[in-house]
Design brief:
Elements lengths: L6 H17 L24 H5 L1 H7 L10 E9 L2 E8 L5 E3 L4 E2 L9 E2 L6 E8 L4 E9 L2 E9 L4
Antiparallel strand pairs: 1-2, 2-3, 2-4, 4-6, 5-6, 6-7, 7-8
Length: about 160
């Protein structure tokens, strides 16, 4: 059986999908050109959270740089379908934490934290602190997180 689609609905659907895609930031829009190749500096455990996760951070410090040219990004579980994200500056040994946990991401999401070595963009999927749900696009600029954009999922 062939179902004909209303031409107006077809055009509206195409325009809507184009608008949503046009708003989504890409890794290529936020490039990092320098890449640190030296050793990861000694950890500087400053915050209470740093100290609580010292073992996790010590393991992170053994990994190669994998984010934004000079950071080592890793996640640690904080419950069922929940992660905290740490970002270790390989040049200084200082740790930054994403300011919220991520949880309950959609089943089609393979990794709730997407990142690349050659970009300072983070693509974060799921509920932030078990509240707002969607995809957040953030940058790490000079050790601070900046929201580029966010797309909220409709209520389930």
């Amino acid at each position: 059986m062939i179902i004909a689609m209303n031409p107006i609905l077809a055009v509206a659907s195409l325009l809507l999908s184009t608008c949503v895609c046009a708003q989504m930031p890409t890794f290529e829009q936020y490039p990092v050109t320098s890449h640190y190749t030296g050793p990861v500096r000694s950890l500087k455990l400053i915050s209470a959270q740093d100290k609580e996760f010292r073992s996790h951070l010590a393991e992170t410090a053994q990994r190669p740089v994998n984010f934004a040219g000079h950071y080592v990004l890793s996640t640690v579980g904080c419950g069922a379908s929940c992660v905290l994200t740490s970002i270790l500056d390989a040049k200084t040994g200082r740790v930054s934490w994403l300011p919220f946990s991520l949880g309950c991401w959609n089943s089609d999401v393979l990794d709730p934290v997407q990142f690349r070595l050659d970009s300072d963009l983070l693509v974060l999927s799921g509920k932030r602190d078990e509240a707002s749900d969607g995809t957040s696009y953030m940058r790490l600029v000079a050790g601070r997180f900046q929201t580029v954009s966010a797309i909220e999922n409709p209520p389930r």
